[in-house]
Amino acid sequence: MSAVNITNVAVLDNPASFLKPFQFEITYECLAPLTDDLEWKLIYVGSAEDETYDQLLESVMVGPVNVGNYRFVLQADPPDPSKIREEDIMGVTVLLLTCSYVGQEFIRVGYYVNNEYDDEQLREEPPQKVLIDRVQRNILSDKPRVTKFPINFHPENKDPEDQTPPPDHPAETDGNREEPPASTHLPSDPRLS
Predict the structure, then answer these.
(1) 160 — phi, psi (to 5°)?
(2) Per-residue confidence (pLDDT) for residue 62, from 0 to 100
(3) Do you find a cis peptide bond into 78, omega within 30 degrees of 0?
(4) Which DSSP state fits 65?
(5) Distance between CA 145 and CA 193 in Å, rounded?
(6) In this predicted structure, what is the pLDDT of residue 166?
(7) Residues paired with residue 108 on neighbouring β-strands, in sequence order
């Protein structure tokens, strides 16, 4: 059983310009006191084929955490477009929100993000070079992919019965498992499952 459960993630300021900061209002509950901090990360997937293009947009430590309900806004700068291949800027990509405890990731929330021009004319006749200031991102916030990994929230307990198996494979998958609309071309990214 997890000591921390995310109860809601609200994507704020969506859709927005590609160059605007991301904002997520995260609500979670803690069911057992934790002595160490929770680490929240926001990662932009720059290419479905190559993880070297992923960008860590923000990493924040929150804690120590006592039993109770919590809410905060995680704000992160947008990805650096110069670190994304030109052909990967437009279209659909992935944004990952993760939470870890003592270096162990226990939850991952994945969102598809659609990047397209803010103007019909530019969408129909895209220029050869991407006009980044005209790109609008739309986070598909109603279809998150939530994956939970079993971890040991109390590593000071050395009793093997208190240990959970390492997170080689997710133990439980939540979230909306509906497939996106057929008209949307989505990259195949194993980090979403």
Answers:
(1) -55, -30
(2) 94
(3) no
(4) B
(5) 7
(6) 45
(7) 98, 147
Provide the residue type at 70 as one letter.
Answer: Y
Residues of the chain falling short of pLDDT 70: 157-193
Contact 156, 108 (CB under 8 A): no
- From CA 77, how far away is CA 1, in angstroms rounded? 33
Q: How far, in Å, CA of 18 to CA of 93, rounded?
A: 12
Using CB atoms within 10 Å of the CB of residue 175, give its burial: 0 to 12 exposed, 13 to 18 middle, 19+ buried: middle
Give the pTM.
Answer: 0.82
pLDDT digits (tens, 9 = 90+) for 142-172: 989 999 999 999 877 654 344 444 444 454 3
Task: Give the span between the Cα atoms of 45 and 41, in whole angstroms.
Answer: 13
Of residues 14, 167, 39, the one with CA closest to residue 102 = 39
Tell me which residue has tokens 């991952």: 108
